[in-house]
UniProtKB/TrEMBL annotation:
One protein family per Pfam: ABC_tran
Keyword presence, Oxidoreductase: no
Function text: Part of the ABC transporter complex HmuTUV involved in hemin import. Responsible for energy coupling to the transport system.
Source organism per UniProt: Geothermobacter ehrlichii
Superkingdom, natural source: Bacteria
Keyword annotations: ATP-binding, Nucleotide-binding, Translocase, Transport
The protein, known as: Iron complex transport system ATP-binding protein
GO molecular function annotations of the record: ATP binding; ATP hydrolysis activity
SMART domains tied to this protein: AAA
Domain ABC transporter residue range list: 2-238
Length: 414
């Protein structure tokens, strides 16, 4: 029914979703999980055709979502939004009845079928007792249930839910989850739900799409296939233990932390970064309790300001100036005192190319050197930086994909 082909999307220059392939068949419950900012809600808007992909396609029965009209899309899919806002004091029953507009012919009034659909939707969501109240007087959880009733009244074959149970108390959250499963089982309703409730998603979903913070797909499969410690660590950047629910057999995730805050056995680390490339590394290493030095960095660089705020030993270079020989020597001395050198995913240009000499010397001294996600498209030196990075790798440097992998590698080194 729904096919996503090599989907890419960005807000300005910031990529949100990258290279997503997905098929959702009729009668399937799919949960979309991942950290904040990974593109979960954006994916729902792309599925609805509200946003147009930067590359790739979203197809509904062979038709592009962004080419379908609003009424045609409403007949295919009903939506329950993440942050409900209803600015006008509609009576609850009237708001739920708005879900029937896509089913009406022209401007004719409500039919008996419309009224039956509204009553049934309100009964299923436990909102009949709210029927005469104004929506502006409802609590967040009550309004969430009313908006779900509106979506059910629409009687579309697909439900798109953006954290639709996030504001509900436990009993209503479980009721809604059971309702979605029942609609799927008895009426064949397809459900695509964005959620932060990993355990509930694992209990109710046929498949799970897990996204990383950079919008890259981590895993797609059954809850058992997706819920592994490695997958969840990559997506959420925390250590997670996965066990089976003894009553249902579904997997359950238990966060066990990012690591010990007393240093966790980490060696002293010198970090080569700049231009914001070291932000996450600095925070993660500091929170893990590592002793860190940084530089050379230009004054005013975002990494320099973060290092200063944390109180790290930093080799400074004046703003907009290339790295000087004294700065290289000072940074080299800090590196010699460290137990490991980490090279952030930095953009390399003529002004900072010489910094790679510190990494070369570290490898020669058998200091462990970790290169975080090195890529040729960050080289603005005509290939010289890329050649030096390759030379460091040939001499014993190690490539790691992200900050979590850096922490794991450092613990092994120690």
């Amino acid at each position: 029914m729904i096919r996503v082909e090599r989907l890419h999307f960005a807000y300005g220059r910031q990529p949100v979703l990258r290279g997503l392939d997905l098929e959702v068949g009729p009668g399937e419950i799919l949960a979309v999980l991942g950290p904040n900012g990974c593109g979960k809600s954006t994916l729902l808007r792309l599925l609805r055709g509200v946003l147009e992909p930067a590359a790739g396609r979203v197809l509904w029965q062979g038709r592009e979502a962004c080419r379908l009209g609003r009424r045609a899309m409403a007949r295919l899919a009903a939506v329950v939004p993440q942050s409900p806002q209803v600015p006008f004091p509609y009576p609850v029953r009237e708001l739920v009845a708005m879900g029937r507009f896509a089913r009406r012919a022209g401007f004719f009034g409500a039919t008996q079928a419309d009224r039956r659909a509204v009553e049934k939707a309100m009964a299923l969501t436990d909102t009949l007792q709210l029927a005469e109240r104004q929506v502006t007087d409802l609590s967040g959880g009550e309004l969430q249930r009313v908006l779900l009733a509106r979506a059910l009244a629409q009687q579309s074959p697909v439900l798109l839910l953006d954290e639709a149970t996030s504001q509900l108390d436990l009993d209503h959250r479980l009721e809604i989850a059971e309702l979605l499963v029942r609609l799927n089982r008895e009426q064949g309703t397809t459900v695509i739900q964005v959620s932060h409730d990993l355990d509930l998603a694992a209990e109710t979903s046929h498949r799970i799409l897990l996204l990383a913070g950079d919008g890259m797909p981590v895993a797609l499969g059954t809850p058992v296939e997706v819920f592994t410690s490695a997958n969840l660590r990559r997506a959420f950047r925390v250590e997670v233990k996965v066990e089976r629910n003894p009553y249902t057999g579904a997997p359950r995730a238990y966060p066990v932390g990012r690591g010990r805050g007393d240093g966790g056995g980490l060696p002293r680390v010198h970090l080569l970064c700049g231009g914001g490339s070291g932000g996450e590394l600095l925070r993660r290493l500091h929170l893990a309790g590592a002793e860190i030095s940084v530089g050379p960095l230009n004054r005013g660089d975002s990494d320099q300001e973060l290092a200063a705020a944390i109180g790290l030993e930093t080799v400074l270079v004046e703003s907009f100036c290339p790295v000087s020989e004294p700065a290289l020597q000072a940074a080299g001395e800090l590196c010699r005192r460290a137990g490991a050198l980490v090279v952030a995913p930095t953009v390399w240009g003529p002004g900072n190319l010489a910094v790679l000499e510190i990494a070369r010397q570290a490898v020669e001294r058998r200091i462990p050197v970790l290169l975080v996600d090195p890529r040729a498209d960050r080289d603005y030196t005509g290939g010289r930086a890329w050649e030096r990075l390759h030379a460091i790798l040939r001499s014993g440097g190690q490539v790691v994909p992200d900050a979590e992998a850096v922490l794991q590698a450092l613990r092994r080194e120690d």
